[in-house]
Amino acid sequence: MKDVMIIANPSSGQKQAEDYAQQAKEILEANGRFATINITESGDDVVKFAQEAARETYNTIVILGGDGTVSLLASGLKDEDYRPEIAILPTGTVNNVARALNIEINLDKAVKDLPNLTPQSIDAGLVNDQVFLSLVSTGTIPESVFEVNEEEKERLGPVAYLVEGIQALNEQKSYRFSLNIDNKVDEFELDLLLIGVSSSVVGLTNFFKDASYNDGKLHIFGLKKTTLGDRVGSIANWIFDTEKVQNNGVLTVDAKNIKIELLNQDGSTHVAVDGDKGPSFPVEISVLPNYINVLTPEQK
Ligand SMILES: Nc1ncnc2c1ncn2[C@@H]1O[C@H](COP(=O)(O)OP(=O)(O)OP(=O)(O)O)[C@@H](O)[C@H]1O
């Protein structure tokens, strides 16, 4: 019977996906479901199994991996007429998508939660022809974050990104962009440009304070190039300020579509998509409203 397909990326995070895949199968079958396990050997396998689950009309895909794996799964389902609902067991390092959806990060608890989740329809984003579920980023800060190596990532988790991000504020490189936001074109010099579909950014669950996962909008944040002190102040204000004070150091807007051109060649020529390397400039990003159903705990 084609009921639940469990897809596990054994290389993500602390590398315990295979054990948890087995536990997930047992707990689902104890609750009357029927589950098969597929262990992936590469990113291509994630796409291949996702498409198989869609074409064979499985009810549910349980995916074990980090943000990169979950994104690959979502992209793999782009051209399918039917998309199974997905449950995420977050075995990655940052797990921003799972955090944004209020999914349990503790894997022992997440496995036990599996039979009690309810489907929630969420938006996705499309960057060129690639689907993302969390964030597209570019600028000096994300560029240095790519340099976080696997060992640091496993040892420090999200802190590794923060450390690299703060160090990057000191960099002299500059990124000049032409942004076409819902057909309004402007040029900006930015250290950081984030385009998200949820309220959450690299584990900060309330970064885009007014955003929700099914509001049909892209949420855009740009950190303008000013003095180091001003930039630290601007970003701290943005994150910690609950009242919306005027913040001249940031560009912030909601939109349906954004086209990004890189005007100087000083920095990296590609964007990051859900924390992994994405397409090169120019990129076009749009929102895909109600793209997929994700199983989440009841919202409190
Ligand atoms: N055996 C494998 N199966 C699937 N993907 C694999 C495998 N080995 C390496 N990869 C690569 O792993 C990447 C996805 O890893 P993922 O981002 O899910 O884990 P992570 O980096 O630990 O988590 P996070 O993104 O949450 O920090 C993909 O880019 C894929 O190409």
UniProtKB/TrEMBL annotation:
Q: What InterPro entries does the database record attribute to this sequence? A: ATP-NAD_kinase_N, Diacylglycerol/lipid_kinase, Diacylglycerol_kinase_cat_dom, Methylgl_synth, NAD/diacylglycerol_kinase_sf, YegS/DAGK_C
Q: Which GO terms describe its molecular function?
A: ATP binding; kinase activity; methylglyoxal synthase activity
User: Which Gene Ontology BP annotations are present?
Assistant: methylglyoxal biosynthetic process; phospholipid biosynthetic process
Q: Where is the DAGKc domain?
A: 1-131
Q: Which Gene3D superfamilies match?
A: 2.60.200.40, Probable inorganic polyphosphate/atp-NAD kinase, domain 1
Its GO CC terms?
A: cytosol
Q: Which UniProt keywords apply?
A: ATP-binding, Kinase, Nucleotide-binding, Transferase
Is Repeat included in the keywords of this UniProt record? no
Q: Does the keyword Transferase apply?
A: yes
Q: What protein does this entry describe? A: Diacylglycerol kinase family lipid kinase
Q: Which organism is it from?
A: Ruoffia halotolerans
